[in-house]
Known about the structure:
The chain is 38% helix and 16% strand. By secondary structure, it is of the alpha/beta class.
Amino acid sequence: MRPIQKSRKLADVCYDIRGPVLEKAKQMEDEGHRIIKLNIGNLAVFGFDAPDEIVQDMILNMPNAAGYTDSKGMFAPRKAIMHYTQEKNIEGVTIDDIYIGNGASELIVMGMNALLNSGDEVLVPAPDYPLWTAAVSLSGGKPVHYICDEESGWLPDIDDIKKKITPNTKAIVVINPNNPTGALYPVELLQQIVEVARQHQLIVFADEIYDKTLYDGETHTSIASLADDVLFLTLNGLSKNYRSCGYRAGWMVVSGNKKPAKDYIEGLNMLASMRLCANAPGQYAIQTALGGYQSINDLVSPGGRLLKQRDLAHRLLTEIPGVSCVKPKSALYMFPRLDPKIYPIADDQQFAYELLAEEKVLIVQGTGFNWIAPDHFRVVFLPNSDDLTEAIGRIARFLESYRKRRAIA
């Protein structure tokens, strides 16, 4: 029988958060090894439970969840999302502008599928959450990466954005709060991005899934609140702020200048109908989550578990010779840098393999987030303090061995 090949559309697609290094980790676990996983923001496995009221509402409504819902989602959760957009000062949002999906991930792909033709370009940050790059490629488009500048706290480089716009550029992706760096963008920078989008008639895709996971008294501004003459698609959900990753309850809000986008919105509606609907049990969690007690504040405030673990991870990482790290203002990750003079790494995926093999710690290499050089890696700071201390201690030991081997060579 002739070999069955994967689609050529997958040639430029990667998702190393669940990639080859994870497969090796699974194999090692099958052999009896205990792996400390710092690769994915899956909160439940680290003891961050979904709020009880969300769980109870889903259980209570389960008898009503067997049928298809409206293709865009149930009325009550969409109404709650509409009220949330008002709290975020996003104007002009109606029920019809809101799409509920099986997590924001499904809606990212839907948004790109409805928009892109072969050769269309989308500006995507580097580093990025790799689903964005993959969604552009799968939709026939070309991801063009603009640089986020580590020296400025990982803020997007506006001049680099401007240089990379061509007649084929259709949209720009803004991940704020940022994954993988933990950066939080100030209003002045967001206004600059809006002005670029305005001048070049770009759609703004705003990934705001961590908009409540903020530290040190920081506040988040939705970029869609800053203009009504640009088209915005804002994505959010329950996965992170409400520790409900597995419930797959996300949403996408269309706002701003919708008049020229009538045909595009028809495409979104068509794709929403084709998948029939988002899962109904997860939809029942949305209204309760948005309107209930915001327990995320307890986790990020002084004395909160997430804040303490962020501070611990940052201190331990930056105590390692040759390792620097911008302290994240938001989200669940940090993106440390390995000084190339001390760690001249040519292949950072191989670096991740070797760390896994020698120290049983799983991380994701920086190029897995479309970073331009093999000199960074991402860690999540979700494990409890003891496990986090153990994991970073193992990383430190591995890097010490790396330095010694290089000195001998």
